[in-house]
Amino acid sequence: MFTVTAAAIAAVLALSSCGGKRENTPAAEGGDGCTAASGQITIATGNSTGVYYVLGGGLAQLISDNTELKATAAETGASVQNLQQLAKGDYDIAFSLADTAADAVTGNADFDKPEEISALTRIYDNYTHVIVRKDANIKSVEDFKGKTISTGSPKSGTEVIANRLIESAGLADGDVTKQRLDLAKTVDGMKDGTIDGMVWSGGLPTAGVTDLFTSNGGDVEFVDISGLESKMKELNPVYEVAEIPADTYKGAGTVKTIVTPNVLMVRNDMDEGTQCALTKLIYDKKADLEKVHAAAKDITLDTAVPPEPITLAPGSQKALDELQK
């Protein structure tokens, strides 16, 4: 199993401490051909114990080291918040789950209107982690009824998926006591027994989940949710079934689950030269991202195109066309 190095963590923390909303410091106008503009750029990531945060810090370092842009990574609540604030201009690049991005570009769910955003590239897949305390007697999502469940941070992609799982299982909102907690607080609640179960959507491995199984593996277990795939697809067609391998988390075993692609999103008003340069950079320097987190190994040209209705930014399409020659 891949372990994030101390140097990588230090780099991420240093970058993220400079993050937050951008204040009148957009990337400069321009960016000809496949060259990035100069200026400052801000990346919306996710919870500090999740993959978005770690990989986002690595991406910010990569951009700062290889272009005229100075990038910072901001800790956020993740997908929904990221895309809402991307569209408003608070961020320049946003990590997001594809189901949330699909909602954003079509004006569904948490989005009142179609947002003018598109993808730099599809990246790795997020695996839905449904983990319960063994003493809670939960064997399926249907068993969430009457239980206290962490559904993730408010306005996160995890919360979107958690609510759709509950709906797909035939439960009403009032059937479940939902706790809208970030991953760190969720893990604490699982350890001390104040919550019965959790939903988390993240790459493999997720540091917070690694911590939970390392310290309290005898008290918790995964739930197989693959049987809800067809119901989930009725809500959004991007969902697929895959396995979390047995060696991902200590003592957890192999489990079938629902996966969702991740995408890097930008506003449509980002100049095409910058779109192109950033997309090429991700693939040209992918080995550097892999050193930050193992999830980057799943970023490939073969899977670079996002699922419909998400479209590639025009500069990104140009970059991929050149890379695939």
Care to describe what's here?
Helix 1 crosses helix 2. The protein has helices at 6-16, 51-66, 79-88, 98-106, 157-168, 183-192, 207-216, 229-235, 272-284, 286-292, 314-323; strands at residues 39-44, 69-74, 93-97, 117-133, 148-150, 177-179, 197-202, 220-222, 240-244, 255-267. Strands 1, 2, 3, 4, 5, 6, 7, 8, 9 and 10 form a ten-stranded mixed sheet that branches. Helices cover 35% and strands 21% of the residues. It is of the alpha/beta class and 325 residues long. The chain has two domains: 6-124 and 262-323, 3-Layer(aba) Sandwich (D-Maltodextrin-Binding Protein, domain 2), CATH 3.40.190.10; 126-260, D-Maltodextrin-Binding Protein, domain 2 (3-Layer(aba) Sandwich), CATH 3.40.190.10.
Q: Note poorly predicted spans.
A: 1-31
Q: What is the count of structural domains? A: 2
Derived from helix and strand composition plus strand pairing, the structural class reads alpha/beta
CATH-defined architecture of the largest domain:
3-Layer(aba) Sandwich
Strand content: 15-25%
- CA-based shape: globular
Nearest-angstrom radius of gyration? 19 Å
Helix content: 25-40%
CATH superfamily of the largest domain: Periplasmic binding protein-like II
Provide a count of the helices: 11
Reading off the top of the CATH hierarchy, the class of the largest domain is best stated as: Alpha Beta
Q: What string, H for helix and E for strand, traces the elements in order?
A: HEHEHEHEEHEHEHEHEEHHH
Number-wise, the strands total 10
Largest sheet: 10 strands, mixed
Which fold name is given in CATH as the topology of the largest domain? D-Maltodextrin-Binding Protein, domain 2
Distance between the termini: 33 Å
The mean pLDDT is: 92
